[in-house]
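Predict the 3D structure for this chain.
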Amino acid sequence: MFQVRVNNLAKKLSENNLEGLIVSKPENIYYISGFSGEGIAIITGSQNYIITDFRYSEQAKHETSFEVVEIGSGVSHFSIAHNIIKELGLLTIGFERHSLTVKEYDNLISHFKNIKLLKTDGLIEELRIIKDENEITFIKNAQKITDKAFEHILGFIKPGESELDLVAELEYFMKKSGSKKVAFETILISGPKTSLPHGIPSERKLQYGDFVTIDFGARFNGYCSDMTRTIVIGKPSEQQQSIYNTVLRAQIKALELIKPGLKGKDIDYVARDYISEQGYGKNFGHGLGHGVGLEIHEEPRLSPKSESTLLPGMVVTVEPGIYIEKFGGVRIEDMIVLTENGCENLTHSEKRLICL
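Done. Predicted structure below.
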């Protein structure tokens, strides 16, 4: 699997007139080599290296077939990388400009005065957009944990429970179910706070009549899941029911349309247009969805300006929402994988409005 990825990257390097690539983004290092510790990688296609320190060198030897080079205390990764690249006789090397801090960039430049360095954008990310069968299996397993966790937490949601206590219970259950860590910071908010798309859980205690929005995900073998559900404590008001049904219908319309060959903006439009027709256009202020994989937000995007063409093997979310300040909001999010003729929905949790 990793050798295929290295071969595919080597072709990209050749197309970009590069003899090698210094990889510093952790997700890209893991994708191309299997190494999950700290360090950098050098990819040339024929000879590939992981440069790390004593803390991770043994781990690296177990996780990757790349040659592992251990650095001493206080030694720069880029100093060792320069020595390796010079010894290989390489003259033109790429580096991932978006994954370096200014300090790291200055360090890199200071060690590569006699070798041509070229900034690159997304060479490995472009490979990561299309998921292979193993990756899709990992994402499905992460989503299975997420679905189970949602069913579990429903038994704890009631007036008087705090948002933070529910987050703790939810994340504990996911970890007990096989998620090494959460995919991102869990959003579990209630009442008027549900108008905040990325609201932060607090000590607020749930009350009768509240909307409760839960946006969360698990990780399996490094791969993320992402799901949002909004429920009501008690009997929903007419406005709550109306807003919820509008969001649900918008999502269903998008799910019925999505297939390879369309652009991200095409899918966004059908959901956004329906929400606007119902009078809530100004209350849907974010994109319809995003790619999911080793990172929770990847390409492609489903947004009003997205020109990305959807292809089989892409995994994306579909998550319309309506947010009304001082009242609350609704978001419903499923994660799908594009197939040859349409899509497979990986999310199986109930979408009808749950009233507890």
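The radius of gyration is 23 Å.
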